[in-house]
Amino acid sequence: MKDYIQWGALHLDERTACLLISFLAAFGTVYLKQRITQAQLEEWHLTWNAVLLLIFVWKISYFLLHPVLTIKHPVYLLYFSGGKPGILIGAAAALLYVFIQLSRSSLPLSTFLHILCLVGFSFLLLYGGFQAFLAKDAASSLFCLIVSGILAIFLTRKKRRLLPIYAALVLMLGLSSTSFFWLKSDETKGKAVAVSTTGLKRGNVPPDFVLKTLDGRKVTLSQVKGKTVFLNFWASWCPPCQAEMPEIERFYKENSRRPIEILSVHLTSEDSVQAARGFANKHKLTFPILLDETGEVSERFHVVTLPTTFVISPQGQIVQQHIGPLNREMMESLME
To answer: Fold for domain 210-334?
Structure first.
């Protein structure tokens, strides 16, 4: 399964793409339900607005969680979010919005919960189906297809008294299908790690290289085997690279006692040694800055977009590839 989907300059990992498509499709399902039953769309609009508010607050929550860093580097709001804590803050804001709107309207709480449950069930089902399809898991895909049929029947029913029966059935099957996929996914990851072929896919051993640092030392990738390595490719003229470097430095300092190494490969062939030195001094970087003066290493790692980061396990195998800027929380999650 490919790690990333690219449309022009936009990069999305497949899980994020599945989440986005499933989310939009789930709301489309609810809208279709409302149209079929000829119901008013007031509750649908309320649900949609609440979710949009959750996303907005989640996106700007980085400022709430790290106000000093955001004031010093406003561009962080463009590239980073509040992560899991931000989702909780967004959910609290969305619930407060719903409570205020329900208190001002005649819309019953049960109607809103009905729409919310249908969105949740549809999302679980669609997400599980997409993931199973991408993993070429025929059993899980068939399972989700059957549940989709049950959901389609539910959508055509106008009698609310059948809601608990259908809701319980869809929830049970939806959770079962997604859980089944996640178990299969974990098994697949375990098998992938066992592969030791040289290459750039997950589970492969990346090609070794020798590069000089800013202070003239020679560093090889193989000499840091036994540590978790973040192999980061960047250039001083790259705005996302400028945004992520203080975060990488913060992560590096906070984990100085752990077996973690950061090898930051500067694309000197498309920049200059002076620019790399000035950048490192400006951001007070303490991890090794390697100079790719010929562009050979970045070419061997098929680096097209900056920044690009490979996460390499202590066993010397690629476990993750990330395209785009990183922050401390993202780096922690990439190690899981």
So the answer is: Glutaredoxin (3.40.30)
